[in-house]
Amino acid sequence: MNVRLLERHPERTSLVHRLPRSLTGVPSVKRVSKLAQAVDRLAAERFDVALVDLSSRAVAAEDPLRVLRQEAPSVPLIAITTGDEQGFQAVQAGAQEFVCRAEADERALPRVIRLAAAC
């Protein structure tokens, strides 16, 4: 399984980069810091899931979920949010699922990724 992460701050990705060790079947987590990079990579490579950190400045200027949904309609999008309200808005905007950053531990995030990829 290949996972793309849209996240500007590398210090926030430590949990996500531990996923290959903690999530069977996820050999590749690749990070981009700009929405345009994510769109380019999704067009050039096959990804099973895209994680979008909505609290990142990399995604603040545009509506990343709508852009990614339009560019890669078959790729499940998972929003990493600051809370449930933002998560509900993310699902309305095209996310398959969301997980609150505070709850995105090594058990919750793999579960959400598996569920989104299975749909």
Overall pLDDT level: 78
CATH evolutionary superfamily: Response regulator
pLDDT below 50 for ≥5 consecutive residues: which ranges? none
| Count, helices | 6
Could you describe the largest sheet, including whether it forms a barrel?
Answer: 5 strands, parallel
Instruction: Estimate nothing, just give the exact number of structural domains.
Output: 1
Strand arrangement in the largest pleated sheet: 2-1-3-4-5
- Give the CA-based shape: globular
CATH class: Alpha Beta
Structural class: alpha/beta
Number of strands: 5
CATH architecture: 3-Layer(aba) Sandwich
Describe this entry's structure for a reader.
- This protein has 119 residues and is an alpha/beta fold.
- It has a single domain, classed as Response regulator (Rossmann fold, 3-Layer(aba) Sandwich).
- The chain contains 6 helices and 5 strands, in the order E-H-H-E-H-E-H-E-H-E-H.
- Helix 3 (35-44) packs parallel to helix 4 (64-71).
